[in-house]
Amino acid sequence: MSLPRTLGELRESAFSEQRLRTRSVKDEMRENLAARLVCPDPMFPGIIGYDDTVVPQIINAILSRHNFILLGLRGQAKSRILRALTTLLDPQTPYLAGCEIHDNPYAPLCRRCNDLIAKQGDETPIAYLTPEQRYVEKLATPDVTIADLIGDIDPIKAARGGHELSSEMTVHYGLLPRANRGIFAINELPDLAGKIQVGLFNIMQEGDVQIKGYPIRLPLDVAMVFSANPEDYTARGKIITPLKDRIGSEIRTHYPQTVEEGIAITAQEAWTKRDSLKLQIPKYVQEVIERIAFSAREDKKIDKRSGVSQRLPISTMENVISNAERRALRHKENVVVPRIGDVYAALPAITGKLELEYEGEMKGGDTVAREIIRLAVGKVFTHYFEGEPMTPIVQYFDQGGTLKLDETVPASKMVQELSKVPGLLEKTKKLGLGASEPDAVRAGAAEFVLEGLYAHRRISRNEEAGFMAEARRRDQPGDDPRAKAAKRNFQ
Questions:
Q1: Which of 103, 253, 288, 351 has a CB 3.0–4.6 Å from the CB of 72, allowing a cystine?
Q2: 477, part of any domain
Q3: 8 Å CB contact between 90 and 20
Q4: C-alpha to C-alpha distance for 390 and 291, rounded to whole angstroms
Q5: Which has the closest alpha carbon to 152: 137, 165, 135?
């Protein structure tokens, strides 16, 4: 069915005047939310780990018709949640065509639209907004002005139209009026200057604003939502008390509470669809990557006030896959299988996302990251092999055996090298592997066993000699100083 294109057609359509006049954006979101609550589908698809914590609070805020703010550290999906609110808007919303502030056809605000209806009557053209067009987002920065958000006098409009500067026809509307009949989101609210926040709460409460000294009544219909990092209140600014008082609900977000939730988020967000080769990511590699973020959030050498973003495991996963892909392409292998060595190769994706405390700065970002990787490997290894006897493997190294795994060799040759260690390949059965698995899978699993023993200090490893007995480590030349620092940390 075609949509009405004039005001006269609109009056005779399903877009009733009474409904459009009386239903605000918050009422619209409330009604659509109430209709969706009876369905079993997720309220916000793609948002993982908030079903029992954040999402119920957001639902309560919307049902209460509140403006609300999401408080949380970086990388906690605050912006994604705000953008997902558009799913609670109607598919089509009529407005007066050409209007900068998307005026309601039955109750226009601006002078231009009132004059247009007076002139054209039922022939006044109608256009429609999609939910995405009704969402306006602004990143708060200290240089944002009241003109950016509310508006300013446009002398060019005045000159071209022959209007006085005090006329409403000369106003160039800012972002907030342009969000009329929609959702207006401000990210990092504390970064907004105090005087600009004053302008926000004034228009939120009374709908009044002055532009260049001229009072203009703008009873806007806007649902206002915000995001902020709670640590920014003192680091870069604060939310002024009158504005906080007018924000109906304050909702705290959080990082994934379980490794499984983190793995699901990383699997959803990381770019893993590579076109070149078949990709097979072992579960233990996924767990190690996720454990890196969990361990970093608990590490005293990392600034907890800054947080460790969920982007860390996402970027790490992409880098790990790329390193494995590079190896597979070089050796013309038909399957890409990431392994623990690839996690160490992904240090550039980790170090840039860690804000270090003084002790961490003294050690250096690479050293801290290596320690965290080793700790993560140790935890995952314990999960799979706790209580499993590893004596034959450890004895091989205690009796003088060494094993250097070269990333440049094909997986088949690596399996041959690993088979020299008694019982090593057999231990991979604990990871659910069978004898028919590709060499790349078996090689990665066996390397994980060795890395796990290294993480628990049952054996040792350095850059030149590879894996060796823990007791022989001190006598080996060429120890990596970063590995030495990692060892001291675990001792």
A1: 253
A2: yes
A3: no
A4: 23
A5: 165
Residue 184 resides in a domain: yes
User: How far, in Å, CA of 27 to CA of 221, rounded?
Assistant: 11
- Indicate if 205 and 344 belong to the same structural domain: no
328 and 467 within one domain:
yes
Q: How confident is the model at residue 483, as a pLDDT?
A: 45
pTM of the model: 0.86
Q: In whole angstroms, how far apart are CA 333 and each of 291, 344, 404?
A: 29, 21, 21
Instruction: Give the total number of structural domains in the chain.
Output: 2
Q: Is residue 88 part of a domain?
A: yes
* Among 265, 253, 322, CA closest to 293: 265
Q: How far apart are CA 368 and CA 357, in angstroms?
A: 11
Report yes or no: 135 and 86 within 8 Å, Cβ to Cβ: yes
Helix (H) / strand (E) containing 285: helix 283-298
* Average pLDDT of every residue of the chain: 88
Do 301 and 237 share a structural domain?
A: no
Q: What is the mean pLDDT of residues 38-61?
A: 93
What is the predicted pLDDT for the residue at 153?
75
Residues 456, 378: one domain?
yes
CB 292 within 8 A of CB 285: no
The full DSSP string for 27-76 is HHHHHHHHHHHTS-S-SSTT--S-TTTHHHHHHHHHHTT--EEEE--TTS
Residues 19 and 28: their CA atoms lie apart, in Å, by 10
In this predicted structure, what is the pLDDT of residue 231? 73
Find the helix packing angle between 311-330 and 283-298, rounded to 10°: 140
Tell me: pLDDT of 305 over 90.
Answer: no
156-196 pLDDT per residue, tens: 776 677 776 666 777 788 898 899 999 999 999 998 888 88
Asked if 246 and 274 sit in the same domain, the reply is: no
Q: What pLDDT score does 490 carry?
A: 38
Residue 2 lies in a domain: no
CA-based torsion, 239, 241, 247, 250: positive or negative: positive
- Based on the fold, state whether residues 245 and 279 are members of the same structural domain: no
**Range name among 270-274, 279-283, 450-454 with the lowest pLDDT average:** 270-274
Q: Exposed (0-12), middle (13-18) or buried (19+): which is 344, by Cβ within 10 Å? A: middle
**Residue 431: other Cβ atoms inside 10 A:** 19
CA–CA distance, 260 with 41 (Å, rounded to integer): 20
Structural domain ending residue among the three candidates 252, 273, 291: 252
- Kind of pairing between the strands at 135-139 and 126-129: unpaired
Q: Looking at this protein, which amino acid is placed at residue 344?
A: Y
Among residues 210, 231, 252, the one where a domain terminates is: 252
pLDDT at 172: 81
Domain of 168, in residue numbers: 7-252
Same domain, 75 and 50: yes
